[in-house]
């Protein structure tokens, strides 16, 4: 019987791939978003910063920041779901994850955000649920919360056009 | 006597830290119509393969512009917050070009303002459109 792979090797491979996906997107760095991974599940983390404020009187997070955070979480979660499947199937070569050719990102078609309560001046979290992922289109629901998981401050529904599987990674 | 709504609205928008972080400039703000320009910036890129600005940055611009349109509405609201916003992305913004959003607050009730907005780059066809509902905080 083959010995199972050491858990650290598996984790390192998965985290390196996630790091390549997230680290390559400048806007994610600008907003200060990172992703926490538990198995295949991702949680977006928006670290509080003064530049994220929209109403200095309250103060409250900018509605656009909240929208952007939810959209980023949706795009990354959707792309990650595809990558995860390929990684587990051994389709992606990860001997050098820094050089992994990532697929094109899904394209946002539309995005609807509901503001449920004002965004507090502290860290925020978000998780996406892929309600439907087809060959061409995907539908994603995202929820954002701060102190209480049961009291979301925003939610969003978005639609995406999926990258073509046969397209070259560089977009050619 | 209070300053006119347009002046107040302009001050209100220019005091927003995130609008400053995105280098937004108000080019028009009067009678429920606002126009804001956001320059292209490498740090706003959402797809490294193409250099296209992230949808989220366009959302932030649309949201700010929608709020600005509400603030300069003749009903003179003292404040506003977004209730919901829907954005349709028609095409990718051209890398290197500034994005200009124009929002119109076309109807208000005592509690709610209705807004539509369009974003363009330097081309003629819109990059994105948005519709939203905003709160009206204590009209003066």
Describe the structure.
The complex is a heterodimer of chains A (about 170) and B (about 140). Helix content of chain A is about 30%, strand content about 30%. Chain A has helices at about 5-25, 25-30, 65-90, and strands at about 35-40, 40-45, 55, 60, 105-115, 125-135, 135-145, 155-160. A six-stranded antiparallel β-sheet of chain A has the order 1-2-6-7-8-5. Chain A has a two-stranded antiparallel sheet with strand order 3-4. In chain A, strand 1 and strand 2 form a beta hairpin. Chain A starts with 6 loop residues before the first helix and ends in an 11-residue tail after the last strand. The mean pLDDT of chain B is about 90. Chain B has helices at about 5-15, 15-20, 55-70, and strands spanning about 25-30, 35-40, 45, 50-55, 80-90, 100-110, 110-120, 130-135. The longest helix of chain B has 17 residues, at about 55-70. In chain B, a hairpin with a 7-residue loop joins strand 7 and strand 8 (about 130-135). Classes of the chains: A alpha+beta (about 170), B alpha+beta (about 140). The interface between A and B is large, with 41 and 39 residues. Strand 5 of chain A pairs antiparallel with strand 5 (about 80-90) of chain B.
Tally of strands of chain B: 8
Mean pLDDT over the residues of chain A: 90
- Helix-strand sequence of chain A: HHEEEEHEEEE
Seen as an oligomer or otherwise, the chain set is: heterodimer
The proportion of strand residues of chain A reads 25-35%
List keywords for this structure.
heterodimer, A: 172 residues, alpha+beta, six-stranded antiparallel β-sheet, two-stranded antiparallel sheet, 3 helices, 8 strands, B: 140 residues, 37% strand
